[in-house]
Amino acid sequence: MNKTRRSWQRVDGVLLLNKPSGMTSNSALQSARRQFSAAKAGHTGTLDPLASGLLPLCFGEATKFSADLLEADKTYEAELLFGVTTDTGDAEGVVLQQRPIEFGRCDLEAALTRFRGRISQVPPMYSALKRNGTPLYQLARQGIEVERKAREVTIDELRLLDFSGNACRLHVSCSKGTYIRTLAEDIGNALTCGAHLTALRRVAIGPLSISDAVTLDQLSLLSEDDRASWLLAPDTLLQSLPDVHLDDEAALRFSHGNPVNIAGNIKVAQGKCRVYGATRLLGLGEADGLGGVKPRRLVCA
């Protein structure tokens, strides 16, 4: 039986996917890619298989900006189970210890105050961080534990949504690099009973919200045109950056990889910016604070 060969095509845009729990980020990416027959695809940072929620996917020219979203703050809803610790810090791990629960809601609320603002975290062994080129989770699976340096992260919001005596649900807004599994463990340790993460849902990344996301099942039921309507413009990932609009001559220079001078018509602070011509996004620029902008990443027409 001959199989029909898939015809991959150029697709440019951003898809806000609502990833289900139990699926790897790469599997979700490849499934969405097949539905769009997109020749080129990537994501903006992974979610653990246990986690669900917002996973922005990039197709075509949008992949050039995927790394820029990694810097954005994240918002989660997390479920914790108290009294039980695991080797991974979440429900997928092996139980290490069980301890009695001897605290109430007021004690939990008081403990949460310690984890708001700038805090220090030791990254978990079950993480993608590397030691001498080897991911820590691979070492952990071999029973090897190595020393990890603590690093500072920021918890902008930590709010108790529900508490049932041995479990709770939290709303967490945090900076990049924050490990929610580690936060769960640290909260459990502060209450002297231990805890682990039983569910995690990402509901926002910067200005992007889960309310605007679509599931793989929903996409599969749509026509090609309706499916395409879920694609957002490539500059969706750059909306937090200031924008620069060039005249035709400057746009041509910029699109050919040359720096341009914008001091005469617009002021842009030093740093990254979105650069547009008359009708389209030209790419990502770097302003020098003195009126000049040089190309960092260019978009093909």
Automatic annotation (TrEMBL):
Q: What is its EC number?
A: 5.4.99.25
Q: Which residues form the tRNA pseudouridine synthase II TruB subfamily 1 C-terminal domain?
A: 242-299
Q: Which Pfam families has this protein been placed in?
A: TruB-C_2, TruB_C_2, TruB_N
Q: Which residues cross the membrane?
A: none
Q: Which SUPFAM superfamilies match?
A: Pseudouridine synthase, PUA domain-like
Instruction: State a single Gene Ontology molecular function.
Output: RNA binding
Superkingdom to which the source organism belongs: Bacteria
* Segments forming domain tRNA pseudouridylate synthase B C-terminal: 181-221
**What residues sit in the active site?**
48
GO BP: any one term: tRNA pseudouridine synthesis
**Substrates-to-products reaction catalysed:** uridine(55) in tRNA = pseudouridine(55) in tRNA
Cite the HAMAP family for this sequence.
Answer: TruB_bact
Q: What's its job?
A: Responsible for synthesis of pseudouridine from uracil-55 in the psi GC loop of transfer RNAs.
The record's similarity note reads: Belongs to the pseudouridine synthase TruB family. Type 1 subfamily.
Q: What is this protein's name? A: tRNA pseudouridine synthase B
